Amino acid sequence: MSRLEPPFDYLVNPTAIERLSFETIRAETDLARFGPMGAEVVSRLVHTAGDPGIADAVSADEHSVVSGVDALVNEAAVLCDVEMLRSGLSRRHLPVEPECCLDGDGVAQRARERGITRTMAAVDDWLPRLDGTIAVVGNAPTALYRLLEHLYAGAARPALVVGMPCGFVGAAESKAALAHFAEHYRQPAVWIEGRRGGSALAAAAVNAMARLSRGEGNVA
User: Fold this and answer.
1) pTM
2) Start-end of H helices in 89-194
3) I want to staple 75 with a disulfide (CB 3.0 to 4.6 A). Which of 47, 95, 135, 143 is the partner?
4) Distance of CA 128 to the CA centre of its chain
């Protein structure tokens, strides 16, 4: 057992910390059902959550992850539902500056006038740029529902949808709707089933794909 008072005994070398972290993840997480790139994404989610059990709730098929990685190689836009998610994305690995429309001109006013959430109004502003993007929802179930409504209505398809809203109202249901759309309309998508999710996990998924787009990774 480590000491509870100084002097503490703990690792300080970042390379050693990362190596030991992913050795532990490989030892404690069943990644067998994922392809090589999917396993990299899932391992990053496990690392962020501190919970190997979250892998059981992740959908990250190889085709979807490859679609996301290829889009990033081609410098696709990354659209975020909230600023917390955008702030969590690694500029060091992303080829472009990620975008969030939540504080855009007229978004709050349109939301008030229509009686909808600000994230829904912000997703409406994604439409002119949606084709071939990475569309990421890490907070608001209403944003994911809105995106799906646009896709059902014939909007241009993202290269990948990352659906990881969290919470107790609509989170699990919106991701189930994403799963249905992905299956029936061949939309590449990565999501976490159930109530779990959040901006940190959504950012971890995109950051993992950004690393892969640069030839980096931790899962052998």
Assistant:
1) 0.95
2) 107-114, 118-124, 141-152, 171-185
3) 95
4) 21
- With tokens 């990362």, the residue in question is 18
Q: 62 burial class (0-12, 13-18, 19+ CB within 10 angstroms)?
A: middle
Q: Are strands 58-59 and 189-192 parallel, antiparallel or unpaired?
A: antiparallel
Per-residue pLDDT of the chain (220 residues; tens, 9 = 90+): 678 899 999 999 999 999 999 999 999 999 999 999 999 999 999 999 999 999 999 999 999 999 999 999 999 999 999 999 999 999 999 989 999 999 999 999 999 999 999 999 999 999 999 999 999 999 999 999 999 999 999 999 999 999 999 999 999 999 999 999 999 999 999 999 999 999 999 999 999 999 999 998 776 5
Please tell me the distance from the alpha carbon of residue 84 to that of residue 50, in angstroms, as a whole number. Answer: 19
Phi, psi for 94 (deg, rounded to 5) = -80, 140
Q: Is the dihedral of CA 50, 53, 59, 64 positive or negative?
A: positive
CATH architecture of 14-213: 3-Layer(aba) Sandwich (3.40)
Question: To which residue do tokens 């569309």 refer?
Answer: 135
CA dist 179 and 163 (Å) reads 9
d(Cα 149, Cα 195) in Å, to the nearest integer? 21
Q: Annotated catalytic sites, by residue?
A: 47
Domain boundaries, given as residue ranges, for the chain = 14-213
Residue 207: name the closest of 109, 85, 74, 108 by CA.
85
